[in-house]
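Work through this protein:
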Amino acid sequence: MNDLLIQPFQLAWATGALSHGPLIRKTTLLGDLSAIFTDGDATQLFPDRPAYDVDMFDTPGGEGELYVGVTHLYPGKVGNEYFMTRGHFHQRREQGEVYFGLQGEGLLLMQNQQGQAWTEPVFAGSVHIIPGYTAHRLINTGSQTLSALAVWPSTAGHDYTSLPHGFALRVIEEAGKVRIMAVKHG
């Protein structure tokens, strides 16, 4: 009977820590993100400071398989812009994704291929269905680490180049408050 009992991967819901499986960790530094912030030069003040980590289970990819990972986006700002992930479309545009808020507070910024953009608040217990054909980015507007569990098709891929001017919305701190503002691309 014990040969038939396989221990599942595990997630600590309060912290987003993954365990009981082979893990991969990718750290993105501020210096890697200079192109996404309005004041990209400011990222060079602390280029080796981690902006976020992504931990994921090292599972086989392929058609019909899923990846599971947790993004840990640290609090901070570059100028008046909150720390954010790079953001991307999927290479296979029709592929969607699901995010589950675990801890912290922030926003999920989404933008479709027609340039329409919107945000959803992310917090412990929030669930976000990211439709296909939609770019997405996490933004930490709080003072703690923002952690979100993501599940996506392993064949989706990441396309970081299809938003040459970035997203149509920016999230900044103004007079101590979170402000979402439209960006005009010339």
Summary: The first strand starts at residue 10 and ends at 12. The two ends are 66 Å apart (CA to CA).
